[in-house]
UniProtKB/TrEMBL annotation:
SUPFAM superfamilies: HAD-like. Belongs to the HAD-like hydrolase superfamily. CbbY/CbbZ/Gph/YieH family. This is Beta-phosphoglucomutase. It comes from Paenibacillus borealis. InterPro entries: B-phosphoglucomutase_hydrolase, Beta-PGM, HAD-like_sf, HAD-like_SPP, HAD-SF_hydro_IA, HAD_sf, PGP-like_dom2. Pfam families: Hydrolase. It comes from the Bacteria. NCBIfam families: bPGM, HAD-SF-IA-v3, PGMB-YQAB-SF.
Length: 209
């Protein structure tokens, strides 16, 4: 399936770089300030979903309710904490095989896009020194619907000027795999086969490819 693709669309967190730990630290700090404990197990529910939905889940866990204005302020605060954590990122934070695989795709003439819910995607790609390897970057600033909605991958496909059947999605989250399938694309799962059951192929990381 990978030999014939014309476009490759990558999720960011867990595929290109592991920023999940920084998201977790920021959410945990916010929860502490609100007076409840937010665990790594809780954090699993936040993977692959938007910041606003993540905050809703966090508040559900804490059994708390706030106005929309208060929630907006909290989401902004969480993002500031997260940006502080990731501001020290550099190329060494890339997951194994990422740069090599992206370069091999470019050498084959495969178009490359990012499809991520992150609103900090461009900043992160810049920090990792790989922004120049992407033909399109579709992030939380360009789309409004969170995965498993296929909007992010459909938009990336359009920006590459390709049809869904010509693109392969690379995802580490169940919601992302579902979004890729809903967009009519083949999906490579990055992680555990028992978790990413709906993916067409599952590998431990891009280094395997």
């Amino acid at each position: 399936m990978l030999e014939h693709m014309k476009g490759a669309i990558f999720d960011l967190d867990g595929v290109i770089v592991d920023t999940a730990k920084y998201h977790f630290l920021a959410w945990r700090l916010l929860a502490e300030e609100l007076g409840f404990v937010f665990t790594e197990e809780h954090n699993e529910r936040l993977k692959g979903v938007s910041r606003t939905r993540s905050l809703d889940i966090l508040l559900e866990i804490g059994g708390m309710e706030f106005s929309e204005a208060e929630k907006l302020a909290m989401a902004d605060k969480k993002n500031r904490l997260y940006v502080e954590y990731i501001s020290g990122l550099n190329e060494s934070a890339l997951l194994p095989g990422v740069k090599e695989y992206l370069n091999s795709l470019r050498a084959r003439g495969v178009a490359i896009a990012l499809g991520s819910a992150s609103k900090n995607a461009a900043f992160i790609l810049d920090k990792l020194n790989i922004a120049g390897l992407f033909d399109a970057v579709v992030d939380g600033n360009k789309v409004t619907l969170a995965k498993p909605d296929p909007e992010v991958f459909q938009t990336a496909c359009k920006e590459l000027g390709l049809q869904p059947g010509e693109c392969v999605v690379f995802e580490d989250a169940e919601a992302g795999v579902a979004a890729g399938k809903a967009a009519g694309m083949l999906v490579v799962g990055i992680g555990k086969p028992e978790v990413l059951k709906e993916a067409d192929l599952v590998v431990a990381g891009l280094h395997e490819l």
